[in-house]
Structure formats: structure tokens, C-alpha cells
Design a protein that fits this description.
Elements: H1 2-22, H2 26-39, H3 43-47, H4 54-70, H5 75-99, H6 118-136, H7 141-164, H8 170-209
Helix pairs in contact: 1-8, 2-7, 4-5, 4-6, 5-6, 5-8, 6-7, 6-8, 7-8
Length: 212
């Protein structure tokens, strides 16, 4: 399955740019309107937005950092969290300021721009990062699958909650999910390459110290 993740990241990155270029077009505007009519006012779905709030993301990320530091001694893993979640949030804010897409007309009181959705992008990043390290610590395929299915489901629900609450267009959250996934895979590829290099060097040192 992991071999599918990398081409999917390329596909989602291309999807992000496709939405970026075309979101003013009539077809996407219609999809945004239909999604707003379908999901708007769904209170239960709107409440899922709490999972993507900044304080929730910061709290879970901090707990993960402590876990990786004290229990795993995984300092590259800690850097993974900083790059995926911390830098991912910075990238999201920069894109919002760069593209300057206004919020939906029904939403009042939010001064930030709309594209791409921070809840969708950074919500996915912190949930997938948490799932990555939790699944890495498990030897059961069933548990790994449950962890990842939960992360995917929560990411989608958090993203959709922003349409239900009127804070974002459907194209905002789709672009956010696409960008978040592509960034997550980029960090995961870097991390896994560094882990392989570290293990290779450790094996070479062990051979030098204890030759056969």
C-alpha cells in the first residue's frame, strides 16, 4: 500500500494547482454552491471543527513531541513533527496571504483569507503525523489499518465541518486536503530516507567494531 502513497501525493499536488487555477470557473463555483447547500447548517458536522482548532493541534503535537523525546528518543521524529505541522501551518498562512481569496459571504468575523483551508490542511498534517508514529509503534496490521482509517476519517470530517459552518468553500477544503497530503508525504519521504541512512551507517560501524 505504501507504494501507492507517493504517486497519490503527486496526484494531489497536481489537484491542488488545478483547483487554484480554476476555482473562479463556473463549474467549481457550482460545486461550491451545491456543497454549501448540502452541508450548511449541519450542527453535528460543524462541531467536528474543534478537532482542527489551533489549540487542539498544538496540544496533540506537543504531546507527540514529548512521547518521541522521552519514550522513543527519536529526535528525527521530533523534527518530522516540526516540519510537517509547524512549517505546514506557516506554508498555509503564506498561501492564504498570497492568493487572497475572500471568505464566503455568509461568514462574518473572520479576517483571514479562505484558500486553502487551514483546518483541512493542518488538520490532516497533525492527524496523519500522529497516525504515522502510532502505527509505527504497532506490529499489528489490523491496528495500523484502524489508526490510519481513523486519521483519514477525522481529517475529512474536520475539513467538511468548515463548509457546514460556512467558513470555507468546498474548493478551499479540497485544496487544503490535497496540499496537506502532498506536504505530509514529502516530509515522510525525507524522514524515511534519513532513517535508512542512519541504520546503514550504524550497521557499518558495527561491522568495523566487531569484524567477523
Amino acid at each position: 500500500m505504501r507504494h501507492l502513497f507517493y504517486p497519490l501525493a503527486i496526484a494531489t499536488l497536481l489537484g491542488f494547482f488545478a483547483i487554484l487555477v480554476n476555482y473562479p470557473e463556473k463549474a467549481i463555483v457550482q460545486i461550491d454552491q451545491q456543497a454549501a447547500e448540502l452541508l450548511g447548517g449541519q450542527k453535528l458536522l460543524d462541531s467536528m471543527s474543534i478537532i482542527g482548532e489551533p489549540w487542539m493541534i498544538a496540544g496533540v503535537s506537543l504531546a507527540l513531541l514529548v512521547y518521541l523525546w522521552l519514550f522513543r528518543k527519536n529526535y528525527r521524529g521530533m523534527l518530522f513533527v516540526f516540519l510537517a505541522v509547524g512549517l505546514g501551518n506557516v506554508l498555509n498562512q503564506l498561501m492564504k496571504e498570497w492568493f487572497e481569496r475572500p471568505r464566503p459571504d455568509l461568514q462574518h468575523g473572520l479576517e483571514s483569507f479562505s484558500f486553502p483551508s487551514n483546518h483541512a490542511m493542518v488538520g490532516l498534517l497533525y492527524l496523519f503525523t500522529l497516525a504515522y508514529f502510532l502505527s509505527e509503534a504497532s506490529t499489528s496490521r489490523k491496528i495500523k489499518a484502524i489508526i490510519w482509517l481513523a486519521a483519514v476519517a477525522l481529517s475529512v470530517l474536520v475539513a467538511l465541518s468548515r463548509v457546514a459552518g460556512g467558513e470555507h468553500y468546498f474548493s478551499d477544503i479540497t485544496a487544503g486536503l490535497f496540499a496537506g497530503y502532498a506536504w505530509f508525504v514529502a516530509i515522510a519521504v525525507w524522514y524515511e530516507l534519513r532513517e535508512r541512512q542512519f541504520r546503514k551507517r550504524a550497521a557499518e560501524r558495527e561491522k568495523e567494531e566487531f569484524p567477523e
